[in-house]
Amino acid sequence: MPSDPSGPDWKPLRRASAHELVIGAIEEQIAAGALTVGDLLPPERELAARLGVSRAGVREAVRVLESHGVLRSRPGVDGGTFVTPVPREALTRFLRLHIALSNFALEDVVDARVVLERASAARAATSHAEDGMTVMREALERMEAPGVSREDFNAADTAFHSGLAEASGSAVSAALTVSIRTALRGLILAAMQRSTSWEAVSDQLRAEHRAIYDAVAAGHGELAAELVERHIRSAADDLHLDPAAPGGRLSPWQ
Amino acid sequence: MPSDPSGPDWKPLRRASAHELVIGAIEEQIAAGALTVGDLLPPERELAARLGVSRAGVREAVRVLESHGVLRSRPGVDGGTFVTPVPREALTRFLRLHIALSNFALEDVVDARVVLERASAARAATSHAEDGMTVMREALERMEAPGVSREDFNAADTAFHSGLAEASGSAVSAALTVSIRTALRGLILAAMQRSTSWEAVSDQLRAEHRAIYDAVAAGHGELAAELVERHIRSAADDLHLDPAAPGGRLSPWQ
DNA sequence: TCGTTTCATTGGTCTGACCGCTAGATGGAC
DNA sequence: GTCCATCTAGCGGTCAGACCAATGAAACGA
């Protein structure tokens, strides 16, 4: 019997798999600063030999980090696997998958959007980062073009919210915002496609977007935040409660 | 010469790699609702044969989805690869990697934390989800235990903010909050380890956490949000400006 | 000198093999 | 009949080796 009354506390000792070891090794180099954006990794064959694993193990690790937007591979003599800085696609895929799996309730996703975009709007009203404002203006023009298709409208809608997030000047919030909106893109487009009163709906959306832009441009942060929240929630309601949709949380994809 | 003045607009035709096709196929099944949490995928060999790719391609795809918290594999006759709902680890690794790569400036990470946790605090004050409140209380007790180590203090600090996020009742915000705090864990712990005035610093942190908890428990949402923001920003300043740290954004890891 | 060909290097893919793990079938001891 | 140890089939985990595809640079010829 051990002297410690609480017991020796054996830890489970989960033997790490080969590819996890490789991921850990690469992550370690990144954390230590020995690998930064633009750097080239050793060839797969060499890295496998150095780490004492097979090439398959290295490749699986590279795939994982690639899917996280950390690495990118290219064949060719000048090619190789190098460190890259493109986090958004990974975040989008992540959210899209988990939304599809209902691991995240649509309601909670909307709540998160409201929190992030309210903050974005409020900050954008004071910072006015020109890139984002331009993106928003162009998106408005595309939405207001005569005879715009629902696909194009949805793309412009996504771009508008991306621009708003960019205009806020905070990269992390912007990445989260854009990823959430992009992950929802398919759902929103499906709802738009189903809409039987598209003219009225799109007029409404155009007016809301325009009002948000004006509030931001005029520097009215609190108003912009309020408009964004109402816009997101009413759009979500339309998405959620569309009478043409069969029941169920993720019905548009079924 | 093409009749269209803008040109035929050749798209690059990026040939999708085998594992991307497999990921797409699995994602498609998930989006269609044919695969949900708990479901078992076909054996790797069979799936490879059905999709017309090698087992390596299937395995690379499974690895990627596994790293996103969507699949999990287990050997054994009853084992297999099944759909699983554990998004947080994946989100944490993602953020940790990109913070380490300086793809996300620490300042922006802190901004995002402020936005998310202000909202969490305000909501927690009205919702009072009991799970989260209990987690916060226990974390406070651990922080206030005599002779607590810096590691344990940091773990309790993380737990406190997790509890706050849980108490807000919104799963997505909570996942984002917890992941950000966990991704910063190493940095914060390093800063704590370096601290030459740990007694004073930890007293300060204990007081701030206690004040936040009291404000939430008393239902003072706006006060709680304000306290959380000040707490996060002052802690970030200590982390960032610690005189013992060498210059540079990610110095604690260098 | 300039264009063409060849070549070496790298990732991309596939094949086939063997290992370790584990629930369930098997079979023997009582 | 019951219970326990053993065996077995099927699965993921890993590996080695081979060949394909892409690419830039060096070698070569007009």
Automatic annotation (TrEMBL), chains A, B:
Keywords, ordered alphabetically: DNA-binding, Transcription, Transcription regulation
PROSITE patterns per record: HTH_GNTR (PS50949)
Organism, scientific name: Quadrisphaera granulorum
InterPro entries referenced in this protein's UniProt entry, alphabetically: GntR_C (IPR011711), TF_FadR/GntR_C (IPR008920), Tscrpt_reg_HTH_GntR (IPR000524), WH-like_DNA-bd_sf (IPR036388), WH_DNA-bd_sf (IPR036390)
Any Pfam family: GntR
Residue stretches making up the HTH gntR-type domain: 16-86
The UniProt record lists the keyword Cytoplasm: no
SUPFAM superfamilies given in the database record: GntR ligand-binding domain-like, Winged helix' DNA-binding domain
Protein name: GntR family transcriptional regulator
Keyword DNA-binding: yes
